[in-house]
Fold:
Amino acid sequence: MKLLSTFLVMILSWLVAGPAQAVSATTPVQPASTISVGALFPSQPSGRVVAQMASPLSVGNLLVTKKAVTVTGIRVWRASTSDGSNRTAQLSTSTGRVLARVSMPMSAVASSGWVNATFATSVNLISGQSVVASVSAPNRLVVRTSVFPTSVYVRGVNGLYASGTGATPTTAKSGYLYVVDLLVATAPVVIGVPAAPIVTPTPTPVVTPTPTPVVTPSPSSSVVGFPSASTTGWRLTGTTLRPYTGPTYITVDGTVIDGADIASDVVVAASNVTIRNSRISAPTTYYAVRQYPEFSNLTLDHVEITGQPGAAADRAVYAGSNLVVNASYIHGTQRGISATNGMRVTNSFVGQFDNQSGNHASAIGSSGAISNVTISNNSLSCDTNLCSSAISMYPEVGPNDNWVIDHNLLNGGAYCMYAGYTPSAGELPNTHLTVTNNVFGSALFPECGQYGPVASWSDVASNTWANNTNGNGQPVQP
Structure:
């Protein structure tokens, strides 16, 4: 059974978020600015979805600047002129310090679409600075999108939310941005309140000698022939980890990190980056490893990804296209790997999660429109709160296409695999799925998932289901 939020409604939206503290500025809502532009979203943002939440929220986005910018205000997408609830918008640092705030009286605006609110005093940001653009949502409507746009000004890391309209949003919404944006000046503005400087060292490739190869025993688990927690990651490579002192915000293409003990999350703003024979212990509730979508070819080879005491990253890995995960041990996060185009996950153990959020968990998950994925010879389990499935292929924003899922051990979730679609929600079936030689285990539930092995198989001509069994070797039918 597909587990989704019950409040998704329609396409076209507005977004909302913003805490309340000492007011630094209150100005009228302005029409389109002649000196400012949106920092992240295009004039017509894609994939807008209006969600009716159970209670008022503050929502927004964690953004990282790509260059020095002058922020003149906040803009929010308004779905309808009947939405007349007044808002409060604000700009904060990633640690919650308010830089500027402005009220947004919606009754003063006659049209739908973008609503701009300008600060009384502009705010200057340096390159590489993390900030939160947010707005209150007193009427419980929020607008979000799973489409991450690109921009020369900022990168959108993830959406954030918090209960109540007076709270600073801090809880990550993986896979979504809210349709809230910065207004930035097209030319430098001299006046303004400079933000506290953030010193970001110039990243340089960290290249270490490849350790002497060590013969790794054949993988074993509760079902013979599959990877386990003890046969994946860096430990069996013979590597002695060294404390990592290099940059964790990586901007150099081709960077290689080898044999490192990284006590931080890792943000990748570069292509062809490799992390191998290493451990990443993320003290965050965002992402353990996040590559921005405009970059590609991130490789994680013999890597352990986990959390630190009291912290569980929302996603272990969320990357650009052509992600490679091999022989890696991923655990201790809220959820596993977010699927991307061209992704390959092989010989890995993904499970042992710690999901204390309201998000639904999967070892590997897609919200749709992801193609050319290979998932082969892995142990994938979902053994925490609100588990959807070990592999979730939701076609919410479009069909998933050309997935090869071969020789994996699956356990847990409401169902071990969700591969179908919901016609009543306007979804189309996933296509060109090849699901072969997988074992639907009984480590967590007798029939693999709580309600069975497979939910909503997309039974179309291009899909193949063959030689899939339970732990006793008996055939499993979709």
Summary: The mean pLDDT is 81. The chain has two domains: 8-194, 229-470. The radius of gyration is 23 Å.
